[in-house]
Amino acid sequence: MKNKLNFKLLNLLILMVILYIFIKTSGYWSGILIRIWNISLPFLLAFVFAYILHPFVKKLEEKGVRKNLATFITLAVFFVLIIGIIWLTLPVIYEQLVLFSKSIVQVITDLSSKYDLNLGEYQKTITDMLNELIKDIGSYLSSGTISFVNTSIKVLTNTIIVIIVGIYFLTDMDNIRKSIKTFFKRCSKQSYNLVKRMDHEIGNYFHGLAIFMVVQFVEYSFLFWIVGHPNWLLLGTLACITTVIPYFGGLITNIIAVITASVISTPLFIFTLVITLIFPNVDGYIISPRIYGKTNNINPVVVIFIAAAFSSIFGIVGIAIALPSYILMRCFFEAYWDDIKEKLEEVKDNSI
Fold it and tell me: How far is residue 202 from each of residues 8, 37, 120, 323, measured CA to CA in Å?
């Protein structure tokens, strides 16, 4: 028993030494890891792109469409939809962004005069940011489309890599999935079941997220258009994009909607307030559970904690990957919970 205890202490000491060396040499290897991450990111995004579109290809195949034709139709619909949305909505969003900028400036001016606050610097900063954004979008629109010439080479190159590699992954996704399943089957049945469950959970999440983003765009664009909000399309787009930010995304959209409505008219402010109070609850308790199903229902406190933790570590990208990362970690923990519990009991018995 004593030898076992010393052996554990020795392992702990070795682990502490490794961690110490790991931290002290971070300045040397962190740059290498960042470089590897930057190189790998386009390929990772390409795989996610293919992974999300693959179920649509399978749906078409189930209806009797040949695989190559199903892949072509899926890609064509996706790109036409994305380009069409940008082409049709960008000019309207630009006009509404101009109105939004004026509304925000008016809100700050009203607050300054009503409560005798000195918000001059804040007003100037916000105004400059909005004017710069409007100027950039205006320069894009003046040429009829977004100019790729002015786009940085890095972003353009990564975008091309994501599209080309993503198409390759999509056409070969069946073989990729088969190879992964074969590999983990050879490892162990437990590993195979874990990967299978991860695939189901993440597939359910991305499929639900895509549908929910469309629902949010249509829902809030329509609601704000019905009540006469001048920024209805901008708010609908914002509601769609911020869906990837758990809980806080919708709050940001609603706050902006209420603030801009408050400087236009009292009836619009009341209607907007009613929308922002009622429909987030409809989304949270009715629409979201129906779309995501029971598999991705996660405690709100856990979601907020995970989002905050990932955002502090990875920045804005961390917010987007927080929920799928947590789903994967939860699957892993639940799959190996019995083994973990058994090991903990062994450690407890040995320490007595």
Answer: 37, 22, 47, 10
Say whether pLDDT at 124 is over 70. Answer: no
pTM listed for this prediction: 0.62
Task: Report residue 5 as tokens.
Answer: 């205890």
Structure tokens at 352: 């007595």
* Cα pseudo-dihedral 319, 324, 328, 334, rounded to 10: 90
CA distances from 127 to 88, 139, 147, 231 (A): 26, 18, 25, 17
Q: Taking the domains of the chain in order of start, what are their residue ranges? A: 42-187, 189-342
DSSP state of 315: T
Q: Which two tokens stand for residue 242?
A: 């911020």
How confident is the model over 125-173, as pLDDT tens digits?
Answer: 656 665 665 555 555 545 544 444 444 566 677 788 888 999 999 999 8
For residue 84, what are the CA distances in angstroms to 17, 93, 209, 300? 57, 14, 20, 35
